[in-house]
UniProtKB/TrEMBL annotation:
Start and end residues of each EAL domain: 24-277
Organism whose genome encodes this protein: Fluviicoccus keumensis
Protein name: cyclic-guanylate-specific phosphodiesterase
Residues of the full protein shown: 636 to 913 of 913
Length: 278
């Protein structure tokens, strides 16, 4: 495209390049290499079902192992991956890798549903449905064990089109969660039309629960809205017992956060699942 051509041309104008552009170019090159050389990995964070007391779901969270061996978090590289379009091949890798992992856990007797995050650019990629279908068939994971997390802002960008894409994805037999709920601008009319299963309450609201009465009221309001639309609720970023107790009292279905566990490498997550009361 013209945009890509523009970016390539830009590379030759190093004289005028400022420090920020240099840093970004370095990171883009690094990210391409990371994808090619297997320097990307997934950690998994468990979600606790408050009614059953069991872990039925885990969320796959992307990490990049940098040159020094340290892990770089997605907040630092997803925005650039979005801008450059690299998020599309990276997202495909994430899907395949997460489905494969969940299928292997299942073979080992640990049945959990795996949630995979999709960013705005991935959601509007016209090959998305085919990519997801392929990840499912190639891994052999039953579709009900895959959940896609799509942010409220990504679906609201073009809500009419989003309804169509979500319907195609749902037809594959998987689950869909609306991530970071409450941070975007949802049209309630669309919320009703989206074939989704779950609202995921953004951690910024969860953290306000015990800090401010309004925070607690907002969370109760979101849970009430979800219940009236027959959607499940997940609260992310649950760090304290007080937050968890409030969420349980308010009828929230699932909780996720450091109180239960940080995102873990696959072997550690498997060990945690094995320690669960049978
Ligand atoms: P998200 O999907 O909303 O994920 C929740 C983030 O909150 C994760 O950050 C998680 O590690 C963090 N978190 C979990 N529990 C707690 C807690 O108790 N307290 C606090 N303060 N934070 C908690 P992470 O792993 O850095 O990911 C950040 C964001 O990057 C994600 O937000 C998601 O939007 C994006 N992301 C992560 N993995 C992928 C991916 O594979 N593909 C795409 N497209 N985006 C991804
Ligand atoms: Mg998420
Ligand atoms: Mg979230
Ligand atoms: Mg979030």
């Amino acid at each position: 495209s013209a945009k890509e051509a523009g970016r390539n041309t830009f590379r030759f104008y190093t004289q005028g390049m400022n420090a920020e552009a240099m840093r970004r170019l370095e990171m883009e090159t690094g990210l391409r290499r990371a994808l090619a050389r297997d320097e990307l990995l997934l950690h998994y964070q468990p979600l606790l079902n408050l009614a059953t007391g069991r872990i039925g779901d885990v969320e796959a969270l992307l990490r990049w192992r940098g040159k020094d061996g340290g892990l770089i978090s997605p907040g630092e590289f997803i925005p650039l991956a979005e801008e450059t379009g690299l998020i599309v091949p990276i997202g495909e890798w994430v899907l395949h890798s997460a489905c494969d992992q969940a299928r292997r856990w299942r073979q080992d007797g640990l049945e959990v549903r795996v949630a995979v995050n999709l960013s705005g650019r991935q959601f509007s990629d016209r090959h998305l449905v085919e990519t997801v279908r392929r990840a499912l068939t190639e891994s052999g994971l039953p579709p009900r064990l895959l959940k896609l997390e799509i942010t409220e802002s990504a679906v609201m960008r073009n809500a009419e089109e989003a309804v169509r894409i979500l319907e195609e994805l749902k037809a594959l037999g998987l689950e869909i969660s609306l991530d970071d709920f409450g941070t975007g601008y949802s049209s309630l009319a669309y919320l009703r039309r989206f074939p989704i299963d779950q609202l995921k309450i953004d951690l910024s609201f969860v953290q306000e629960i015990t800090r401010h009465p309004d925070g607690a009221a907002i969370v109760r309001g979101i849970i009430g809205l979800a219940q009236s639309l027959r959607l499940q609720t997940v609260a992310e970023g649950v760090e304290t017992v007080a937050q968890r107790d409030f969420l349980k009292d308010s009828g929230c279905d699932l909780v996720q956060g450091f109180l239960l566990s940080r995102p873990l490498p696959p072997q550690e997550l498997a060990a945690l699942l094995r320690r669960e009361p049978g």
